[in-house]
Amino acid sequence: MASTERHEQEMRQKASRALRGGVKDPIEMLRLQCLSRGASGIKGLGRAFRIMDDDSNKKLDMNEFKKGISDYGLVLEDGEVIALFKTFDKDNSGSICFNEFLGSVRPPMNKGRRELVLKAFNKLDKTGDGVITVDDLKGVYDVTKHPKYISGEWTEEQVFLKFLASYDTPNQADGLVTKEEFMNYYSGVSASIDNDAYFDLMMRTSWRL
């Protein structure tokens, strides 16, 4: 189940207020700009950088990094982009590890929350191949209560695809959700929920864990 509209709105407002207040740390600035786009913001950044990784070596040089920031529409000065890159290029090799970078930008979740998100993913990933597909959702996600299925506007598959798209990057939905995308999405949701007990209840209720 996607995060509620209220959580999305609260998260965007919270991130936008923090940005207006002034942020000096480049990683926090990037994180807040992503969160100001909602729960899919971090995941969208991941998709943008994955596209930039032309040779699929899971590393980004300065030019790829700058292009990824620009193409995703993030507002950072050149000096801020360079400072951010240098923060991750600890060995001064001229490249940064994509997964380490994304892991640092992703809002932190405590162990209990991470375990709940992984438990939900594993329940949905019936085939165990690390990707949630329409076939995985059959028998797990009940479409019969969806208003557009009830009205006859959408078929079962259309409901499934819409559901998967909520975890995907806007306008770039591919009908597949990887573990990384699922975790990125819920890291955004988690950032909007301060109370661990409420997050636990939301996840268990949503996925019948």
Description:
- The protein is built from 12 helices and 4 strands; from the N terminus they run αααβααβααβαααβαα.
- The protein has a two-stranded antiparallel ribbon with strand order 1-2.
- Helix 1 packs antiparallel against helix 2, helix 3 packs across helix 4 and helix 4 crosses helix 5.
- It is mainly alpha-helical.
- The longest helix is centred in the first third of the chain and has 16 residues.
What is the element string, with H for helices and E for strands?
A: HHHEHHEHHEHHHEHH
Indicate the structural class: mainly alpha
**Main β-sheet, spatial strand arrangement:** 1-2
The profile of the biggest β sheet is:
2 strands, antiparallel
- Cα separation of the termini: 13 Å
Overall average residue pLDDT: 80
Q: Sum up the overall morphology in one term.
A: globular
Q: Over all CA atoms, what is the radius of gyration? A: 18 Å
Number of helices: 12
Proportion in helices: 55-70%
Number of strands: 4
Short key terms for the protein model shown above:
single chain; 209 residues; mainly alpha; two-stranded antiparallel sheet; two-stranded antiparallel ribbon; 59% helix
Write the layout of secondary structure elements.
Layout: H1 5-20, H2 26-35, H3 41-52, E1 59-61, H4 62-71, H5 78-88, E2 95-97, H6 98-105, H7 111-124, E3 131-132, H8 134-137, H9 147-150, H10 156-165, E4 177-178, H11 179-191, H12 196-207
Antiparallel strand pairs: 1-2, 3-4
Helix pairs in contact: 1-2, 2-3, 3-4, 3-11, 4-5, 7-11, 7-12
Summarize the structure.
59% of the residues lie in helices and 5% in strands. By secondary structure, the chain is mostly helical.
